[in-house]
Amino acid sequence: VRRITELSEITEEGKFEKLFQWDSRDDSIRLAKSSIKESIVLNRVADSKHISIDEVIEDLERRETILKWIVQNKIEDFDQVAEIIRKYYVNPLEVYNKARFAS
Questions:
Q1: Looking at the 3D structure of the chain, how many domains does it have?
Q2: What is the pTM of this model?
Q3: First and final C-alpha spacing in the chain
Q4: Strand, helix or coil at 30?
Q5: Backbone angles phi, psi at 80, to 5 degrees
Q6: Does residue 99 contact residue 91 with C-beta atoms inside 8 Å?
Q7: Does any domain span residue 62?
């Protein structure tokens, strides 16, 4: 069994900045940084898409909801998961609302 225990970014100076860390008490992933808004990568994503960091974070939260919905509903078929992802790229709010209200 493999487990991701942390997710870090590497800064331009070569230092590791921990973003998320596994919490063994409840087997969950927790935000390790005081604010995800400090993420170098997410700020670069925001800049490249000409959107705010808040919009990037909102999109990540929507994706998290959808992934949890997929797991809760035991959607394991590759084609079904791929179709949900495809629909998300076409109409993110429609897929998000389906997942949010079905939970």
A1: 1
A2: 0.77
A3: 28
A4: strand
A5: -65, -45
A6: no
A7: yes
